[in-house]
Target: 5-oxoprolinase subunit A
Amino acid sequence: MAQIDLNSDVGESFGNWTSGDDAAILRTVSSANIACGFHAGDPLTIRATASEAVANDVVIGAHIGYRDLAGFGRRHLECSPDELAADVLYQLGALEGIALGLGSHIRYVKPHGALYHAMISHTGHAHAVIDTIAAYRESTGRDLPVLLLPGSIALDYAAEAGLRGISEAFADRSYNPDGTLVSRREPDAVLHDTEQIVENMLRLAEESVLIARDGTRIETQAESICTHGDTPGAVAMAQAVRSALEGAGVEIRSFA
Amino acid sequence: MAQIDLNSDVGESFGNWTSGDDAAILRTVSSANIACGFHAGDPLTIRATASEAVANDVVIGAHIGYRDLAGFGRRHLECSPDELAADVLYQLGALEGIALGLGSHIRYVKPHGALYHAMISHTGHAHAVIDTIAAYRESTGRDLPVLLLPGSIALDYAAEAGLRGISEAFADRSYNPDGTLVSRREPDAVLHDTEQIVENMLRLAEESVLIARDGTRIETQAESICTHGDTPGAVAMAQAVRSALEGAGVEIRSFA
Amino acid sequence: MAQIDLNSDVGESFGNWTSGDDAAILRTVSSANIACGFHAGDPLTIRATASEAVANDVVIGAHIGYRDLAGFGRRHLECSPDELAADVLYQLGALEGIALGLGSHIRYVKPHGALYHAMISHTGHAHAVIDTIAAYRESTGRDLPVLLLPGSIALDYAAEAGLRGISEAFADRSYNPDGTLVSRREPDAVLHDTEQIVENMLRLAEESVLIARDGTRIETQAESICTHGDTPGAVAMAQAVRSALEGAGVEIRSFA
Amino acid sequence: MAQIDLNSDVGESFGNWTSGDDAAILRTVSSANIACGFHAGDPLTIRATASEAVANDVVIGAHIGYRDLAGFGRRHLECSPDELAADVLYQLGALEGIALGLGSHIRYVKPHGALYHAMISHTGHAHAVIDTIAAYRESTGRDLPVLLLPGSIALDYAAEAGLRGISEAFADRSYNPDGTLVSRREPDAVLHDTEQIVENMLRLAEESVLIARDGTRIETQAESICTHGDTPGAVAMAQAVRSALEGAGVEIRSFA
Model:
């Protein structure tokens, strides 16, 4: 039977500020990218979110980011590889401590925002992140795959380090024929048609193929689908994708 | 043979700002209270400090604090017990992640600054801290004593929770006859005479007795001596205490 | 003709996190308590909010707070009076710089959250805040009233310092016979009945009287009504209060 | 009579962490680059530093930086030009409020660290900074020159905006024949010989010439010399430069 993972960003509230309908999205996805406090997520929010993930049998992943609350981790920060490595390790440990108290563990890692983009081609930052995850896996003795954009140089480094690199597809984004995302600066970068999105994701789960906006068939290794929970429309979309996949006999199951 | 622990605060630098001669103090003490990032200590500093502690066979303790870098954790912050509990757990996990990468573990916890003082009589905060440490010990399965001021209500809560509470004495402070510290507002609160300090600490290690400033003998359970590393004079004092204790056949050894 | 001020907290977003419908509330009130970056409000948010206030002829006030983004300024922070004084001055200057660029000025000050509550009886913090505002007024040469809870000790200090202290009433809160607010821990602390609220606020504007929950008439000097903009219901309530007051011939006008 | 300015970074302490011997350096320089709280400088430090500058007749400049305390403003932060503009305006206002209370004003602006380097060629950030300073000067009606590295694109933008751009030379750095600084990665990037430094700075003040490390004479428009106060050696160097200049009849005087 075909299977695929659904992941989403959660735990991104901070103190009095809330972000996203985590409760709804945690009933929908199989993998939860939980903010670790550097780009979002205060400890109380993180603990509540991790607890809700555990209650819903959703796998906990560490959504690591640059130290930049004011920028939500979306601004590139040219820290040194050593600083980044220590910042990442600190975040992994903090979330693991919280997961442990819930009888659980971090089961994967996903870089967030500008750090996610740095994984594509910033060799210093990509190495720092991958090496830190590999060392952390070594010290815990547990598998720790890393979720990335297809084509990221960090996927190569992960392979070299013996880490599982997992590629993801974006349910609501359109693709260029070479498999890269259409830039958000272009008008048709974001998809809004539920039917089209559902159809695309079914094809992905069943045939490992994405269709570029010019019709090109793109073979892809994506094992996970990134969905959003930050608006009611986004949650509904994620739920529609899940229902359609399940209806077609595709198992929704984390890669981790 | 008599034995006693020497502890000191380390890892309190932050980014470009340095604090204390950690290298020197880590060659002197048996227990290192390592800042966890909330009152001081960026991840790179924390990792370097923990690494130095391991290299010197110094036991790693988590020096947890209020979330207040601008105040160095020395200002009482009336957060809710739930917020505090989550903040403490986050700090424990973060430091544990770093220790793990060095083949080590957090072996005890010491609250810092205003949080240390809150442990004396702030029931809400004392319960939050003790309950969090007890739960964390439970989830890791490792002993996790907590280092406190004698007379702290948190020592009672620790006993109820089955945690080892460890009392400490201050090498450079004078005592009232009831065993409390002479307030810093009084002129003779801080001791500067190395000979007197060394004599006091020898008596403490060998007879479990402190001498109050009026001459009263105070029986004490202190198993650890708090020393400082933030000035050259403080480091020299700590080294003098260690030398004198060792010279008298007292073993310097962590309680943890 | 009777007149009264309506004030509300705005500019409380932070980076990616939004808070409140500032655009709607700025079409409703006469005085805008703009966050200054210490409890909420990044500079870009502050500037956009101040600009919107100016566009709506709403008076700009500095909503000063403790340095505590994680707690939204709602947790008492026992900083020293000197630290608080400098923190307040910094916030006043920052907002004034932004107002200046819009051809405007800070016209009043309102402490936020836990700092607002500290003004009631924390003599050290009340003095620090009032003295700082008084000195700032002196250095700018412009009037700078301060908005406070009736009964605050800071109102006495303001009078001594030659500052105008302005008392405010809360549209949606019920009152004890002595003029204090019914604690939020009691079930009827918050009013939800628009008709009742409107009636209360009309009486306040026309007769300077509040009715306690037991029916006692309370003479009050409140020159401003605090309303909220953080939920659609709160905005609607504020709009209903404004409409009713205007319909009754009461002028909505800032005290500043 | 020849004249030149000496500038130095001050106010870079933060809470419990101290940085530099500000008291000594403020007795030496004519212009004080005071940190504004984003890369360093808590409000209490800023106020004390500005007060000391005023007491020593040293001109106050705003040392603006990226929002990055953990990185001391030395890491490039790819914020949007709008975010940067608002961050800069906020910092200018905050320092101006403090200066105002001392009967003084900000008299110039110097970008710090990574932001200083961004002024060389990052068009978006250079425009954001210059436009903000130009607008702030407009709203205050006071001259507000900006201190920059020779060759910075921001100097061109300043000229276009009608701002005075001031170039500075570095007392302790060696120069390439094209007038750029020798990279810190090269062994002879930093000068340590007091006699050589003093000779260089005398030549600069009297002939507007720097000598490159290969002996090339570089005509330069530098009107200010950047000195340091972060080590005892640096302070002594700054004092030696001042003494030598004064001994040669060069007036030490701010450009602002």
Summary: The first helix of chain C runs from residue 22 to 26. Chain C has a mean pLDDT of 96.
